[in-house]
Structures are given as structure tokens and as C-alpha cells.
Specification:
Elements (H helix, E strand, L loop, with lengths): L10 E7 L2 E9 L3 E4 L5 E6 L6 E4 L13 E5 L2 E2 L5 E5 L7 E4 L4 E6 L14 E7 L21 E8 L20 H23 L6 H5 L4 H13 L7 E2 L12 E10 L2 E9 L1 H6 L18 H14 L16 H6 L1 H15 L2
Parallel strand pairs: 3-12, 13-15
Antiparallel strand pairs: 1-2, 2-4, 4-10, 5-9, 6-7, 6-11, 8-14, 11-12, 14-15
Length: 351
């Protein structure tokens, strides 16, 4: 047992969310552990105002699922995230949390061993920087305030052996699905994703390129679209009826489970949830939407997941307007920048 009142506060930040400064404290359960199994943090997010605040609780420090709640490094080098990369349905309330007026929410992060490639970096001191990209809506812009984040460190003295988050099937060329209708949907979505990526590759450097990719080298971005279009990174399972992470509720559309070792992708299965089949539109429906308000399509979601699978992209932020506010480095590594640019090209050239 441990008492929050006796643990030293190692991180204190504030971030404006709908004109409210949320206070975030992150405390390690122990600053030194013998095994990565024992790495853990207690997090408290406090709303100091007299009004409740509703924020997205996914893919940030509020998320207890095996997503990326921390940026981890050792000796200045990034420790790659090896958990799940998720596409969410942000119309579903399960993706939000309300912090009461003058109240707090406590979150524990104690299952980090399988979420980062600690093994490739060996024993020593790891630095954890909490993700505090809080927004009240998927349409909200990225906060421009610069956060004075103080990193949290944990020393691991012995065991950094890689753990598997869950067992995945061996690689296969085609969608893995015993439902004929869903198998057809997956096949069409895969073909659409590759076509979207190919068209995006051919238009890199033109039109709205700078909005989605800033000053990144067009050749580097085109190469990633080319990998998605040709799927040069190898074969993978694409599932319609499996949920090994146990997260396919109403708030999740699809997710990719990457196996990474030494910076190399060794497995990259994609799992599609019911919402993908029942609610996500086909790309043709984009033609009736204003270009500034385009949203996910089945092919776009598949392209998003394939960007994870082929280039190990991250999910810094979601939403085709919000992604334009990222830094150039984040734009290059953010999955939705690839989906949104490809959908933008489709909307402006094919409709």
C-alpha cells in the first residue's frame, strides 16, 4: 500500500481546456525498480474552477487502456511505443470524462511493461513525459501554450525483457474473417485505402500539402504513402471478429497492434470493431461534405491503420482540422495527417 500524501510530486503542469487550467500531478510508485513489471505511476488531474470540465480521455494521461499515455526516452533516445494504436468514434461518450468543479480524477498506470521497447535500451534510467493533449472536442485546435513539463524518471536495475501485450496470429496475406459480408467490406476498404494512398502520393507537395505536412520533405512523405499503397512493409492479418485487447466497445472503430524490436516492425495486425462495419461511411460520401469538414471513411480508417502498420506512426492528435496545428515533426509522424491529406485529395479531385 502507498499513500498519495507521502509521495513527492515530480510533475506539475497546466493546460488550457475551454479556458480552464487543469492541474496534473504524476507520481512514480517507486523511483527505482528491479523489473519493468514494477514501473507504475499515480496520476491526479484536478479542475481548480467552479465549473465542471469535459475532456477527451483517450491517448493521453487519462487513458488507462494500453495506449500511449507517456513519451518515454533513455539517454536522450526515444523508447518506442509497442502498445495499441486506436481509431476512435468521438461521438461516443465513453471517450470523454467529466472532471467535477473543484474536483479531481485519479488514474493509475501500472501495466507499462508490454507497452514500450525497454529491452532495446537496456537497464538504467528511463524518462517518462506524460501526454497532456487535453481537448474538449475533436474539433478543438491544439493548445498553443507552451507547457513547462518536468519529466518523471524511473531507474530499472535488472529486468527489461520484452513482454507481449497479447498473442497475435501468424502473418497472412488476406483479411482474416469468417463472415462473408464483412470480409467483402474489408477487401473493399483495403483496396480503397491503397487507392487513396496512391493518389495522395501523386499529389504530395501540391495543394494543401503544407497544411497537413508543413515543411517536411515531400519525398519522405511520398515514400510513406507509397508504402501504404504498395504495402511494402509486409503482410499482416486484418481481422473482422477478434478483439484481443478487449476494447471494441461503442467508442472504438479499429486498432493496430505493432510488434517492435530494435526499431523494426516485426508484426502489425489490424483489428476492426463493429462500429467500423456499421457506422463508418464509404469514401464516396465525402463528396457531399464541405472539404473543411471531411471525416473518416472506411478506406481512410484503413489507411490510418496501415500507416501505423507500415511506418509505426503515432496518434498525437485526431481530427482533420486539429492535425494542422501540430509541429512539423508531429505532422510527419501522426497517422491522421496521412488519412486527412488523402481524404482531402479525394474530396477536391474526385468529387
Amino acid at each position: 500500500m502507498f499513500s498519495l500524501s507521502f509521495l513527492p510530486v515530480l510533475t506539475l503542469v497546466s493546460l488550457a481546456v475551454a479556458q480552464v487550467d487543469l492541474k496534473v500531478t504524476v507520481k512514480p510508485l517507486s523511483p527505482t525498480v528491479s523489473s519493468i513489471e514494477d514501473i507504475g505511476f499515480s496520476v491526479i488531474v484536478t479542475n481548480p474552477t467552479d465549473k465542471e470540465v469535459r475532456v477527451i480521455s483517450k491517448n493521453n494521461i487519462l487513458d488507462e487502456a494500453p495506449t500511449t499515455s507517456f513519451a518515454v526516452s533513455k539517454d536522450g533516445e526515444e523508447v518506442l511505443f509497442t502498445g495499441i494504436r486506436v481509431t476512435y468514434n468521438f461521438e461516443h461518450e465513453s471517450n470523454y470524462v467529466t472532471i467535477p468543479a473543484s474536483g479531481s480524477i485519479a488514474v493509475n498506470h501500472t501495466n507499462l511493461a508490454a507497452l514500450y521497447d525497454f529491452q532495446s535500451h537496456g537497464t538504467g534510467t528511463f524518462t517518462f513525459l506524460p501526454k497532456t493533449n487535453f481537448r474538449s472536442s475533436i474539433d478543438d485546435p491544439i493548445a498553443s501554450a507552451k507547457l513547462a513539463l518536468e519529466p518523471v524518471t524511473v531507474e530499472v536495475t535488472e529486468d527489461v525483457q520484452a513482454r507481449a501485450l497479447f498473442d497475435s496470429n501468424s502473418l497472412a496475406t488476406n483479411p482474416v474473417c469468417d463472415d462473408g459480408n464483412r470480409a467483402g467490406v474489408l477487401s473493399n476498404a483495403l483496396n480503397d485505402a491503397r487507392a487513396l494512398a496512391g493518389a495522395a502520393r501523386d499529389n504530395v507537395g501540391t495543394g494543401a500539402y503544407a497544411e497537413f505536412f508543413g515543411n517536411n520533405n515531400p519525398a519522405d512523405v511520398a515514400y510513406r504513402f507509397d508504402m501504404i499503397s504498395g504495402d511494402y512493409a509486409g503482410d499482416r492479418n486484418i481481422h473482422c471478429n477478434q478483439d484481443p485487447a478487449g476494447i471494441c466497445n461503442g467508442g472504438v472503430v479499429a486498432y493496430c497492434m505493432l510488434g517492435l524490436s530494435g526499431g523494426n516492425i516485426v508484426s502489425s495486425d489490424i483489428f476492426n470493431c463493429n462500429y467500423f462495419f456499421d457506422n463508418i461511411q464509404d469514401s464516396g460520401a465525402l463528396c457531399s461534405q464541405p472539404v473543411e469538414n471531411i471525416s473518416n471513411s472506411k478506406g481512410g480508417v484503413t489507411l490510418h491503420e496501415l500507416s501505423h502498420a507500415t511506418a509505426a506512426t503515432d496518434d498525437h492528435v485526431y481530427g482533420c482540422q486539429a492535425v494542422k496545428g501540430l509541429s512539423d515533426q508531429q505532422k510527419f509522424t501522426n497517422a491522421d495527417n496521412y488519412q486527412c491529406f488523402a481524404l482531402h485529395v479525394f474530396r477536391t479531385q474526385r468529387c
